[in-house]
Specification:
33% of the residues are buried. The radius of gyration is 20 Å and the shape is globular. It is built from two helices and 18 strands. A hairpin with a 6-residue loop joins strand 13 (200-210) and strand 14. The N and C termini lie far apart (47 Å). A 14-stranded antiparallel β-barrel has the order 2-3-4-5-6-7-8-11-13-14-15-16-17-18. It has a three-stranded mixed sheet with strand order 1-10-9, with no helix packed on it. By secondary structure, the chain is mainly beta. The chain has a single domain (25-288), classed as Beta Barrel (Porin), CATH 2.40.160. 7% of the residues lie in helices and 51% in strands. Pfam families: PorP_SprF. This is Type IX secretion system PorP/SprF family membrane protein. It comes from Rhabdobacter roseus.
Length: 298
Amino acid sequence: MRKAFRITLAASLIMALLPTVLFAQREVLYEQYLQNPMAINPAFTGVREDFNMTLLLRRRWFSLPNFPITQSFAMDGTLANGRLGLGLQALNDRMSPYGTTGIYGSTAYHFTPWGTWKLSLGAQGGINVLPVYDPSTNTSLNRALGSLGVGAWLRSEHFYVGVSKPELLNKGFGQRTIPLAYRTPLYVMVGGSYALAEEWQLHPYALVVQESKQKLRVDLGTRLWYDEKIGVGASYRIVQSPYFQLSAEAQVSKNIRLGYLFNSKPIEGAFNLNPNAPLGIHELMLKFVPSPTAFHTN
């Protein structure tokens, strides 16, 4: 009875806050694009050439033992002398009533069209398992829905630009009382890598996001690395409701990198039904590269 009451109350509040369309897919994964560029662009699959694995744990409170944690995992590498990239991502979102469990595979073809410039073309497919509320039974039923995305990534030694749509399917789903739909944003990302001194590297970037019925979003940020061992970063989002992210990373060995990220606002903010919950979100990162051949910031 209590569970049914909580579901009904949550649904009522969500309908009051979002009377038109509720976007519930893999927003959390999208927001981790700095640590996992494959999240928004499948063409990044295999760009680093080294086999990489990244685990991110996302939580409001790390001091509360039973509070939900959202986990995401990504890995990618290359075959055929670096020409073919293969990747896998998984998401287990447990920080909102409409959390997503999903798994996505990606592939990219890498070639050199001219000079030192390299171009990657990628595609991604997978499934999202979403709990959809059924008002007739006061229950939440899981539904598995397909996902498909494409992207391109052009890079040189000191510059890159990526264009992608990580979701092409524009389908509605769920009950009519709570209409849901996939997000289908267009991402354009540019950035570079510059040596400030012998041991200092600066990595500025900008991300532009266009989405139907949404205002144009721009993220501006940079990351600064010292001696390829310590990195700090800051990102600011220019939207109606400003948002920033701070990060700190440490390359503790040639194979392992640890990181901490603070997000001033959760992407799950629209679903935050607890008025006492903090606005900030904390994330812990573990990156493992079994046999690194070069240093990569992502």
